[in-house]
Amino acid sequence: MSASPSICVFGAGAIGGFLAAKLEASGTPVTVIARGAHLEAMRTRGLTLVSGGETLATKPRVADDPALVGPQDYLFITLKAHSIEPALAQLAPLIGPQTTIVSGVNGVPWWYAYKLDGPFRDRIVTSVDPEGRLWRELPPAQTLGCIVYPAAEIAEPGVIHHTYGDRFTLGEPDGSRSERAGTLSALMIKAGLKAPVRPRIRDDLWVKLWGNMAFNPLSALTGATLDLVVGDAGTRAAARAMMLEGQAVAEALGVRFSIDVDKRIEGAAEVGQHKTSMLQDLEKGRPLEIEALLGAVVEMAGWVDVPVPISQAILALVRQRAAMR
């Protein structure tokens, strides 16, 4: 790897744009793959980040044709889970034998069972990778896990508003302490981000997924913001039941939870009047991240023979809700 690693952000929406702006401003050159009005705005005016009352103007390299960019040392994928497979042909020119693919995607990722201890080692999660294309074309051996915590939105083309959070937890699927993870962590810390490298990345993944598997579909079904889902006794109980089912699945797969379910729910309550990403996508007529957030949990429940009747019922309802739009 070169002294100054080449870094590309593919899917430079709100989170990808936030990350690219922070890295670029710290002196780490970044290439951004984008399209449409967002691409044109960044080409002409640069990428602007508004965060904490401050405005940061950056000028990353911008491209719409990955073939002109070529293989990268680090490739951040910050797409919605269901958008990855349609983008595989575009991602291919950016991936060489030495490329580290950084999976900044919500929910259960395609690489989840790579080198997983136990009988499910290297099993493909068909909910998120039905034909195994992601496993083949985004090799898990080249993939670094990344749990994304910041919240941001595209205020207008070329302008990102950052709301809260600055942590991107990194981790190798096999739990090793790798040079590639350490190098990337150092670059992200230099950019003012929190980027701890964890030996048990799936533990961190599940703490975030724990809330998303319940709050996202419940909010899409009810139209309620997070404070209402948690504040109402009925929907809070439904979310808690789903989360306990998810915990049983995760623990059967070897995950250790560092907090209990009620503390996790209270953490969600503190976010306040927030529309979950699934509710936002529903209202905007976009595809929903159902399979990565809940379908995969129900699928893995079958692996370990853990009953998840509430999660199965909510999954059926939210799939129907998406289909009826």
CATH superfamily of the largest domain: NAD(P)-binding Rossmann-like Domain
Which architecture of the largest domain would the CATH scheme give at its second level? Answer: 3-Layer(aba) Sandwich
How many DSSP-defined strands? 11
| Average pLDDT for all residues | 95
Biggest pleated sheet: 7 strands, mixed
Radius of gyration: 19 Å
Q: List the uncertain runs.
A: none
Structural domain count = 2
Structural class: alpha/beta
Overall geometric form: globular
Sketch the topology as an H/E string, one letter per element. Answer: EHEHEEEEHEHEEEEHHHHHHHH
CATH topology of the largest domain: Rossmann fold
Strand percent estimate: 15-25%
* Helical residue percent band: 40-55%
Per CATH, the class of the largest domain reads Alpha Beta
How many H/I helices?
Answer: 12
Distance between the termini: 47 Å
Strand order in the largest sheet: 5-2-1-6-7-8-11
